[in-house]
Amino acid sequence: MIRMRHLLVVCLAVLAPEIADARVKGFFSKYNKVLNAKECTCNCCIRERRRPSEISDPSKSAFKCSLTPQSDHNFAAYQCSNTCTVMNDPIFPRAATLSANRFCFYHCIPTSGGSASALEAAANNQDAQALQNGGSLVDAACISVPPEKLPEAMSADGNGRDAQLEA
Prior knowledge:
By secondary structure, the chain is an alpha+beta fold. It has a domain at 42-50 and 58-153. It is built from 6 helices and 6 strands, in the order H-E-E-H-E-E-H-E-H-H-E-H. The protein has helices at 2-25, 73-77, 100-107, 118-125, 130-133, 150-153; strands at residues 45-49, 63-67, 83-85, 97-99, 108-110, 142-144. The strands form 3 sheets. It has a two-stranded antiparallel ribbon with strand order 1-2. Strands 3-4 form a two-stranded antiparallel sheet. Strands 5-6 form a two-stranded antiparallel sheet. Residues 1-22 form the signal peptide. Keywords: Signal.
């Protein structure tokens, strides 16, 4: 029993500096990379009509999300840029920095309602009822894909899949 205690004391004496040193340095002693781009968010995305070649199923959404134009007030308000950062993303598991347009397309769902085109919105805003109901928005917002629908936007190769989801 005395030998066992002696062995334990010797082991602790030998390992104590290494254990203390590990606590000071931490588990990760160096950064792998610095990500300077802002975190990706659907706030920087707007609803847009799909191109005819992007509509594979007519019963699905005729709209998609894309990056807000730089001239839009939301671009500056949300500090949007052409690239953004994702971390531990289920749709893009191997990516850290993405094109914001790509993020919008795969990660965001266009909101429903509103006008189908900018021309229709402008025409609706000229109507007398626009004073009572607020008129029509030229652009509509996008929201994040709900967690239960994320698997529909994931692909085996880690590049995302167009699920043509709608809100």
